[in-house]
Write a structure and sequence with these properties.
heterodimer, A: mainly alpha, 2 domains, 0% strand, globular, B: mainly alpha, MetI-like fold
Chain lengths: 290, 283
């Protein structure tokens, strides 16, 4: 009986090892560590988070919380205005850094510093520079005009602008670097031919540079938008979400709700962002996994 | 010797007109941090561009731990080192194994795992912070270095796997085939053929993971809270808890904290720029 049983089983599913080549067995073994990390620290937290966000009451509470609406608007401003300004500057500077000059080479080495140093001390440095009484910026304004400078971080609009500025300061070098690589990949013959034909600076950009860089530029812009959604430091360390919680973005809002012990709201606010995030992610995955 | 033409001078002037603002914009926050580090408190708060009495006194306070906020400076520095090194090593191990498995061994389901990893890469890490915090609580790892190490490995590996997979796809298949013909086992191919050829990408990814972990603030302050367990960035954030924060000491500590990653970045810049920008955006 026992023999028949084991025989039946082996027909239904032959032992795993006999169906796989040794290479495939190794493949599974080597893939296992990441897979386990993925299960324990991505799948479990995501499912747990969704489970916490299951109550419709949380969404009603979010809808009634003016700070959530404000954070959503701030996030949108951050992404739509901030990122586009940043990418336009990066596009412009990539042209500047593509120039062959020794001093520009050296400048590009310095230019990468904001990206190379950790953001915490530099953001705090900016925070003190903007201090209304002792900060360098207002000292400078006073010595120029004799007037007191504005209280930078006390006005929500100015404070959010400053946070966007800090974000641009930090990540501009990275995107400029990527766009430089794109620019250097364009064949030099095209520019020489255009030079012979007497093309203007704008015509060279319009008909040579832009057509060959637009895919890269759009990809970078979308990627930067997705990452900026998770930019916690620029806002949290500069303004702390203040004044009066008016400069929160979605990434700092979750921490605010966590502090207030409203865990389900924290998760619900992130779930609310998903309809905007997932299409972007889907689009990027399509682009990158070709 | 040929004098530059008017046109050349004009071009150079235009370039300088861009270059100088770029230089100032880049350097101001960093210079401000340095200025505070070498200034006595009175000079720092007076808004001068160079202190009247530049001093290294702030550094001596930090290195001798002579302030309430700095009493665990060495332990916290060491915590940052241990966590960054562990994240670098673990990420390299996990990502190299996975990339080899997916790209060279063509393991069944490898493509699915790759896409799942890529998907994780695009979800902003800050969105995962709150559930990760609760998850670590459920696993009983809060206030334990392992919580931060594992969280950072989770965040670093998807990109690491992706970059390494791109790089290993470029290695010719004939190499593996030749090694198999010579009777090499899979592990021998991994160790003797694959790893040496992948060195530049491995350096880039190792650096990436170490810097990511060293610079992390959000996860570090969520997952670690005990003064003897926290990393330097969390300690820097804690300075702000006081109303009259010693900003000159905060900036000095921040300056010391910023030096190692900057040094690592510039040391491995060659690898970073090639390995990471090629991977970051494939057009």
């Amino acid at each position: 009986m026992a023999i028949t049983l084991s025989g039946d089983q082996s027909i239904a599913s032959p032992p795993l090892s006999s169906r796989l080549t040794p290479a495939q067995v190794w493949g599974i073994v080597l893939l296992a560590p990441y897979f386990l990390v993925f299960l324990a620290f991505v799948v479990y937290p995501v499912c747990y988070g969704l489970w916490l966000a299951r109550h419709p009451a949380s969404y009603v509470a979010l809808y009634n919380d003016p700070i959530f609406a404000r954070a959503a608007v701030n996030t949108l401003i951050f992404l739509v205005i901030g990122i586009n300004i940043k990418m336009l500057i990066a596009l412009f500077l990539s042209g500047f850094f593509a120039q062959q000059r020794t001093w520009i080479k050296w400048l590009s080495v310095i230019f990468i510093l904001p990206w190379a140093v950790p953001s915490i001390p530099t953001i705090l440095s900016v925070r003190f520079m903007l201090n209304p009484e002792w900060g360098m910026v207002n000292h400078f304004i006073f010595s120029l005009t004799g007037d007191d400078g504005p209280n930078w971080l006390n006005d929500p609009t100015v404070a959010l602008t400053m946070a966007i500025g800090v974000h641009i300061w930090k990540s501009l070098p990275f995107w400029t670097l990527i766009l430089i690589t794109g620019r250097l990949a364009i064949s030099h013959d095209l520019f020489e031919a255009a030079e012979v034909d007497g093309a203007s600076w704008w015509q060279k950009f319009r008909y040579i540079t832009w057509p060959s860089m637009q895919t890269l530029y759009v990809t970078c812009t979308l990627l930067s938008m997705i990452w900026t959604l998770g930019d916690f430091n620029s806002v949290y360390l500069l303004t702390g979400g203040g004044p009066a919680d008016l400069t929160h973005v979605l990434s700092t809002l979750g921490i605010r709700y966590l502090r207030l012990d409203q865990l389900s709201l924290a998760m619900a606010s992130i779930v609310c962002a998903m309809p905007f995030v997932l299409p972007l992610v889907y689009f990027m995955m399509k682009r990158l996994s070709r | 010797m040929k004098l530059p033409t008017l046109r050349e001078v004009a071009t150079e002037a235009k370039l300088l007109l861009i270059g100088i603002p770029v230089f100032i914009w880049t350097m101001v926050p960093i210079y401000h941090m340095f200025l505070f580090a070498i200034s006595p408190k009175e000079d720092a708060f007076s808004g001068k561009l160079w202190p009247d009495h530049p001093t290294l006194h702030n550094f001596s306070i930090v290195f001798n731990q002579q302030h309430y906020f700095l009493r665990d400076f060495y332990i916290q520095f060491w915590n940052s080192v241990v966590i960054a090194a562990s994240v670098g090593a673990l990420t390299l191990f996990i990502a190299t194994a996975a990339a080899f498995s997916i790209s060279r061994l063509k393991v069944p389901g490898g493509r699915v795992v790759m896409n799942l990893a890529l998907f994780t890469y695009f979800i902003p890490a800050a969105f995962l912070a709150v559930p990760m915090y609760r998850t670590m609580g459920n696993y009983g790892l809060l206030n334990n270095h392992w919580s931060l190490i594992l969280a950072m490995v989770t965040i670093a590996s998807p990109y690491a796997i992706w970059v390494l997979k791109q790089a290993s796809d470029k290695l010719p298949v004939e190499l593996d085939e030749a090694a198999v013909m010579d009777g090499a086992t899979t592990l021998q191919i991994f160790r003797l053929v694959y790893l040496p050829l992948m060195m530049p990408s491995l350096v880039a990814i190792g650096t990436y993971a170490v810097l990511l972990a060293w610079n992390e603030y959000l996860y570090a302050f969520l997952l670690l809270s005990n003064d003897k367990e926290i990393t330097l960035p969390v300690a820097l954030g804690n300075f702000l808890a006081a109303d009259d924060s010693p900003w000159e000491l905060l900036m000095t500590t921040g300056f010391i904290y910023a030096l190692p990653p900057a040094a690592i970045y510039y040391a491995f810049r060659r690898y970073m720029v090639g390995g990471l920008t090629a991977g970051a955006v494939k057009s």
